[in-house]
């Protein structure tokens, strides 16, 4: 073994500690290892303690305690499961009762809605009929009036001056003296534009003479009928649609009485201020009054009834129609007959009872 050396190593406190380091010569160790490797190796047998191979026998008291604990725990779990099952069954029963109650209320509401819908359809039909009747009454009341557009409207014009101008205009276009008793400007005076003049006639023959000669006037003067607002609105819609057809180079025909317009490929009718396209189905029969009008118009062929007296001769209009249940379309049929001059109407395909009595307007 080599001599040792003393070394001084610093510490955290700044002190030095002497360390002895021995210098070894490993040559004799290497030689000893080589000799050891030359000797044969022997396996050492380790004797085990017999007590390690013996398992301790279980304690019967501990097993009984564990089994008792598991049994009690199983009983508690089973009791909780049974309680939860009963609660779920009760909840499901309550939900079923609530669902049945809601279903009953829903069925009641459905029946009420069906009744209201049916009543609404009846009211809608009655309102349409009343509107047509009211429109006809208003038109009859205003039939005696004419409206003049385009007359000059000077400021501070008196009614007498206006009456003289109107009488002169009517006399010029009719070529005979026409006198009116009263005239009236509509609206207030405006800096630009001319107010319309309404002229009520006391003599209906004078009114018809002026109306028949209305085309003798020169622009910007025009003579029009005093129509109800609904008719003026519907006629404006028809004129607008006719202009669209004309812009598309299509021919069209306007039926002012039925408020309908027909082109080469489609047909429309104004209902309550809306332009509705007519849809026809030959297999399903008639569904609306518009379909009825168009089919009767296409089928009905007027025939001349000869008479010795020409003054008593008239056109006889005969119409034939497949109605497909007169009971469901009775109101539409009445409305159509009231708006059209049909002398004889032949109705087929009415699956209603043969003893049913139907009263149609004459």
Describe the structure.
This protein is an alpha+beta fold and 362 residues long. It has four domains: 77-141; 144-225, L1 transposable element, RRM domain (Alpha-Beta Plaits, 2-Layer Sandwich), CATH 3.30.70.1820; 228-278, no CATH class; 285-362, no CATH class. It is 44% helix and 16% strand. It has helices at residues 27-38, 60-142, 159-174, 204-212, 229-247, 289-299, 330-339, and strands at 5-10, 16-21, 145-149, 184-185, 197-200, 222-225, 252-255, 260-263, 267-271, 274-277, 303-304, 315-316, 318-322, 344-348. It has a four-stranded antiparallel beta sheet with strand order 4-5-3-6, with no helix packed on it. It has a four-stranded antiparallel beta sheet with strand order 7-8-9-10, covered by helices on one side. A two-stranded antiparallel ribbon has the order 1-2. It is elongated. The termini are far apart. The relative contact order is 0.05. Mean pLDDT is 75; it is low at 1-38, 40-54, 280-289 and 299-313. Residues 28-60 are annotated as: Disordered.
Secondary structure category: alpha+beta
Radius of gyration: 55 Å
Examine the secondary-structure arrangement and name the CATH architecture of the largest domain. 2-Layer Sandwich
Helical element count? 7
CATH class of the largest domain: Alpha Beta
How many DSSP E strands? Answer: 14
Mean pLDDT: 75
Q: Portion of residues in helices?
A: 40-55%
CATH superfamily of the largest domain: L1 transposable element, RRM domain
Predict the CATH topology of the largest domain: Alpha-Beta Plaits
Tally of discrete structural domains: 4
Amount of beta strand: 15-25%
Question: Biggest sheet: strands side by side, in what order?
Answer: 4-5-3-6
Q: Report the span from N to C terminus.
A: 150 Å
Low-confidence stretches: 1-38, 40-54, 280-289, 299-313
Give the overall form.
Answer: elongated
Largest sheet: 4 strands, antiparallel
């Amino acid at each position: 073994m080599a001599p040792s050396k003393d070394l001084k190593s610093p510490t955290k406190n700044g002190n030095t500690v002497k360390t002895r380091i021995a210098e070894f010569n490993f040559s004799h160790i290497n030689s000893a290892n080589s000799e050891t490797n030359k000797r044969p190796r022997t396996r050492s047998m380790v004797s085990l303690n017999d007590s390690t191979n013996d398992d301790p026998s279980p304690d019967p008291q501990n097993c009984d305690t564990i089994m008792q604990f598991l049994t009690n725990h199983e009983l508690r779990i089973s009791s909780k499961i049974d309680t939860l099952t009963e609660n779920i069954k009760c909840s499901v029963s309550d939900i079923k009762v609530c669902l049945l109650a809601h279903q009953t209320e829903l069925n009641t509401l459905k029946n009420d809605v069906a009744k209201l819908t049916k009543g609404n359809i009846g009211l809608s039909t009655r309102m349409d009929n009343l509107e047509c009747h009211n429109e006809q009454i208003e038109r009859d009341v205003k039939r005696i009036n004419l409206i003049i557009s385009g007359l000059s409207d000077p400021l501070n014009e008196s009614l007498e001056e206006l009456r003289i101008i109107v009488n002169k205009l009517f006399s010029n276009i009719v070529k005979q003296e026409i006198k009116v008793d009263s005239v009236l400007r509509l609206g207030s005076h405006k800096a630009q534009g001319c107010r319309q003049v309404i002229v009520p006639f006391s003599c209906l023959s004078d009114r018809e003479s002026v109306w028949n000669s209305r085309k003798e006037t020169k622009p910007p003067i025009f003579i029009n009928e005093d129509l109800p607002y609904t008719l003026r609105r519907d006629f404006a819609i028809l004129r607008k649609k006719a202009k669209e057809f004309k812009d598309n180079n299509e021919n069209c025909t306007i039926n002012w009485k039925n408020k309908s317009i027909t082109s080469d490929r489609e047909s429309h009718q104004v209902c309550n201020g809306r332009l509705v396209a007519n849809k026809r189905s030959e297999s399903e029969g008639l569904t609306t009054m518009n379909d009825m009008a168009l089919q009767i118009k296409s089928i009905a062929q007027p025939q001349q009834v000869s008479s010795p007296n020409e003054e008593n001769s008239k056109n006889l209009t005969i119409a034939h129609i497949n109605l497909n249940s007169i009971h469901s379309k009775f109101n539409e049929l009445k409305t159509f007959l009231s708006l059209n001059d049909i002398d004889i109407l032949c109705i087929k395909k009415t699956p209603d009872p043969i003893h049913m009595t139907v009263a149609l307007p004459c």
